[in-house]
Amino acid sequence: MEALSETEREIIRGLLRKEYGPRSPLLDQLAGAGVENREFTGGGVFVSLRIAADAPAADRLNREISDGFRTMLAPPGDLVGFTLFIRHGYLDFLEGYMFGSGDWPGEPPDGWLIPRPVGTAGQKAG
Questions:
Q1: What are the backbone angles phi and psi of residue 31, rounded to the nearest 5°?
Q2: What percent of the chain clears pLDDT 90, i.e. is strictly above it?
């Protein structure tokens, strides 16, 4: 199982803490999470998460949490968004996407993402 990048882990942790607080059981799932599959799409990335088999579910929660982040890339790649999908009480996958017409840099966001949200939740690119 491939590891989440440190920045991916930080993004997920921040989204969960902002939405559910520091004691969310979803944070416990994140502690043992890895990558089932990572697919670069040109304008973004899909990261399918693998959760430990013994991780408890967070109720039967089905939810998406989104936020935007600045990058060190030149426009139009200077703003990206991430949406975390939670299905049946488990972390399911993380989607990263460009706002505008830029191309995703074909790698995890370590080194080029500024991991402080800019508050663009709900403004997902189509």
A1: -55, -35
A2: 69
